[in-house]
Amino acid sequence: MNERSVLIVEDEVAIRDMLVMALEIAEFDCLQTDNIRDAYQIIVDQRPDLVLLDWMLPGGNGIELLHRIKRNDDTRELPVIMLTAKTAEDNVIQGLDVGADDYITKPFAPRELIARVRSLLRRSVGGEAAERLQVAELVLDGQSKRVSVGTDDIDLGPTEFRLLQFFMSHPERAYTRGQLLDQVWGANVYVEERTVDVHIRRLRKALENRTPDYSQLIQTVRGTGYRFSSQGVAL
């Protein structure tokens, strides 16, 4: 039996069969369904390592299932790649805002999809250093995957955690969106640069409702990208 399993949630039989073939050739175990009700049951019962989730599905849509996955403490760390024919920016951002780790628009090349699956799985199994980082009362524990300010835990998704970990490990330097994609998402991942802005916004939101406002540590550098700096921030 292969070690890594992928759940395919796709109602178009031809696409689902193509995905199964590509994944099995790449030595993944495949689970499959065409609706969100059965998909969630499979997630709970069989614990796949990653979900390929179509946007448009019978009896609901992929965003509804994504909401449910990310609201449940037992499944919120499950990596999800959205499969969609929708290319409008608002739709892409909606999926990322809800908690998708990546998205790929149809039609796509099987080799590109496999590259994204492998990269996302590498990131989800603990590739980050198990180090403890601290700025004032903001603490990131790489071993327990917890972030806190004082005695209060901060709820972060896996991508926001990796982004904050990279920033705290590399303070006082400006990084372009492309550099952040390479460092946090992986150099071989095909993700658009605006994805960085979405996750920066989510990370800032998680840090802002504190006293002091730790979201100020993540600074926008005009013409470049972003920098993590405590200079000029009252902590």
Automatic annotation (TrEMBL):
Q: Does the keyword DNA-binding apply?
A: yes
Q: Which Gene3D superfamilies match?
A: 3.40.50.2300, 6.10.250.690, Winged helix-like DNA-binding domain superfamily/Winged helix DNA-binding domain
Please state every residue range assigned to the domain named OmpR/PhoB-type.
Answer: 130-230
Q: Which InterPro entries match?
A: CheY-like_superfamily, OmpR/PhoB-type_DNA-bd, Sig_transdc_resp-reg_C-effctor, Sig_transdc_resp-reg_PhoB, Sig_transdc_resp-reg_receiver, WalR-like, WH-like_DNA-bd_sf
Q: Which UniProt keywords apply?
A: Activator, Cytoplasm, DNA-binding, Phosphate transport, Phosphoprotein, Transcription, Transcription regulation, Transport, Two-component regulatory system
User: Which top-level group of life is the source organism from?
Assistant: Bacteria
Which compartment or compartments is the protein found in? Answer: Cytoplasm
Q: Does the record carry Transcription regulation as a key word?
A: yes
Kindly give the SUPFAM superfamilies that the UniProt entry links to this protein.
C-terminal effector domain of the bipartite response regulators, CheY-like
- PROSITE patterns registered for this protein in UniProt: OMPR_PHOB, RESPONSE_REGULATORY
> One Pfam family for this entry, by name?
Response_reg
> For the modification 4-aspartylphosphate, which residues carry it?
D54
| Residue intervals of the Response regulatory domain | 5-121
**What does the record give as the DNA-binding region?**
130-230
Q: Which PANTHER family match?
A: PHOSPHATE REGULON TRANSCRIPTIONAL REGULATORY PROTEIN PHOB (PTHR48111:SF40), REGULATOR OF RPOS (PTHR48111)
Function as written in the Swiss-Prot or TrEMBL entry: This protein is a positive regulator for the phosphate regulon. Transcription of this operon is positively regulated by PhoB and PhoR when phosphate is limited.
What name does UniProt use for this protein?
Answer: Phosphate regulon transcriptional regulatory protein PhoB
